[in-house]
Specification:
The protein has about 80 residues and is mainly alpha-helical. It has three helices and no strands.
């Protein structure tokens, strides 16, 4: 049986890295133009929501719910013996 590649963990890691990168850019570059700074603050706000969802999924009830659903899926019936 071929295992399907799961992209969710990679996207979660990319969101968290992007969040911290945006914070570092905001803190370390004091001479950012106001228009760029405003856009960066909006980006950070969006990334905060994404990171919140990532933590909610991996450490909240969603992961347990997904695992429970997987465990409750009925196994295929055994082949009939003639």
């Amino acid at each position: 049986m071929k295992r399907k590649f799961d992209l969710k963990p990679l996207l979660a890691i990319a969101a968290i890295i992007g969040f911290f990168a945006a914070i570092i850019v905001l803190i370390s570059a004091p001479d950012i133009p106001v228009s760029v700074k405003d856009i960066l603050l909006i980006l950070i706000g969006a990334l905060v929501a994404i990171v919140k969802d990532v933590f909610g999924y991996y450490f909240g009830s969603s992961e347990g719910s997904a695992r429970k659903t997987e465990l409750l899926t009925p196994a295929p019936a055994p082949p009939e013996v003639p």
